[in-house]
Request: fold
Amino acid sequence: MGEQARHGGGLPLRAFDPAPVGVAVTSGPDHELVYINDAFRTMLGDRTLGIPFFEAFDDLVQRGYVSHFDRVYRTGESLALSEAPFELSGQGYERYATCSWSRISLGDGVDGVLMMVTEVTDRVDSVRASELVGSSRTRFLRHYQSLLKVETRYRSLMAVETQVLVVADPVGDVVEPSPGLQRMTGQSWEEMRGEGWQDTVHPDDLGRVKDVIAEAARTATRFDVVMRLRMADGTYRHIRLVSQPVLSHGVLVEWVGVCSDVEQEWQEARQAELLEQAATATANVAHLDEVLTMLTHVIVPNVLDGCGIYLVPEFDGELPEPLVVQRFVSIVRRDLEPAPQPGTVVLTGGWSGFVEAVRTRRPVHRTFPAGRPPPGLAPPAAEEWFRRTGANSAALVPVIVDGSVAAVLDAVVCGDREPIGETDVELLNRLVDHAHAHLSNAMRFQRTQRVALAFQQYLLSDPPEIPGLEITARYRPSATVAEIGGDWYDCFRLPDGSAVLTIGDVAGHDLTAATTMSQLRNMLRGLAMDRDEPPGDILRRLDVATESLYDGVTATCVLARLERCRGVGWRLTYSVAGHPPPLLVTREGEARYLDSLGDPLLGVAGDQPRTTAVAHLPPESTLLLYTDGLVENPGEHLDEGLERLIRNASSLAREPLDVLCDQLLARLSMAAKDDIAMIALRPPGG
Reply:
């Protein structure tokens, strides 16, 4: 019971050990003695803890003081007596003490009584009491005020856990030496006193700490602040300062506080928060570069001042020489912009840090004088940024996905900010590892999509050169679906010299859709070559073949034939099978959709007639055939997408044809996720 009681249920009663006055603490309504300090033992002798106060002091002659404990415990009102007499059995003489009783909380819902005692026997002269009553009262008041200040200070400590004691005046200036804080920071007492202790606070934290102290002083309330203090070895650690106000007659006279090292707790909390942010940021991202970019935005500026991501090509065995990597993202703090530009980086043996990180699959971490990185550490084309920003440390962290180094994260800290430490490198590793599942999925998606795109582009060959016509085609795969799609375009010449353009879309995103797309495309070529007939008749025959050969398959299509006619320029005959209508834009920017005629999808009409329409193309106009991915956004009416395409195409009417196509894709909403195929042609000027 002794040591446990001495701590009063976990409260730091040891804070009273050095007090110059006698201190005793009791617990509960039975006034169980749980603590006495050395000054109390010197005055009244050592006592047994864990039993009621008056059993522990059974030799105290005066027994009436028990009523004071009861009253203070019951009402919560403090009580003080001057020159109170007391006598221990066997001593044979009466002594005098100034005493005070106050109720305190011992934690866990338990209250107790704090008794403070100062012996004043040598001051009491009963013979001269009547003559010296004035001066005696003055001495008592002075002593009692001092006693109350000591009592209030030590009672304040009951609410905090003590490691390093700090005593400051009402504005926060240190007024008493603190050996613990001196050992922690390496400051001497002369350096620490007054505002000197603030020199050890990290510059980024000092303003906030001053504001907290000022507000607490204004309200005379307890404050609790976490800040970075410079340690004796020059490093910074997170320290928690908890300070209690000491009041005299309601007036703030000083602060009594304690400092606790919370670096480990702070690091754990920061890691948990950043890991949660990283998981949220990468949750619904598919592409590898997008996952890494989102991770970078979490890291900068929370941990780093700048971060670059370099994609590493897949390789077997030894690293290729030179190693060619792709810097696809480079993000820095706003005040440190511009960042090094993305692009291809050729690495020779000179950039040893990167090669070492890839070869060893372990981080390479260096600290160096501001703006002067060692050779082989700053990436090519980034050396000037390192010098300009005063970079003081860097870490090259390999991003390992499914056993392979997929990328390298280049982490940098600049200026007066504390250099990257081992804890930061560990955090970067944890962030990358935490996102491993997303990175693995993204890499598999990217590889699959790369194969699908190569296959699709193999099927969708470049348009042929046709005299008198400018023709451009584009294909962009889905941003969210890795499988090959059913979109296609085609352009070829007929034996009579006319040009045929077609575009279509087979429903689905899988190998079946791609195979059907390829077969329909080739079948349409054969049907167009077989007979000289209107596009509507050709689509009717394709419709019959589709229903016969591909049960349940549906597709949309536009088939157009373009030929030069004397006196009228270029004539277009076309037929539309359930597909978005062709767009015609004049050189002056006037745009309109050609009549779609309302014919149904392929695969549902059977051997039913299909219509053919005719239009004439003005000189230097643009004819655009496209799939629905160019005009459809989730949750948006199709008419909005069609109107948007007209506006964009009109504004680009005089741009080169390849620029027009690229810009139409670039202006798409981020919500657009479907495959897109486009083919555009432009007749020459008159």
User: Anything to note?
Assistant: The longest helix spans residues 133-156. The CA atoms of residues 246 and 252 lie 6 Å apart. The mean pLDDT is 81.
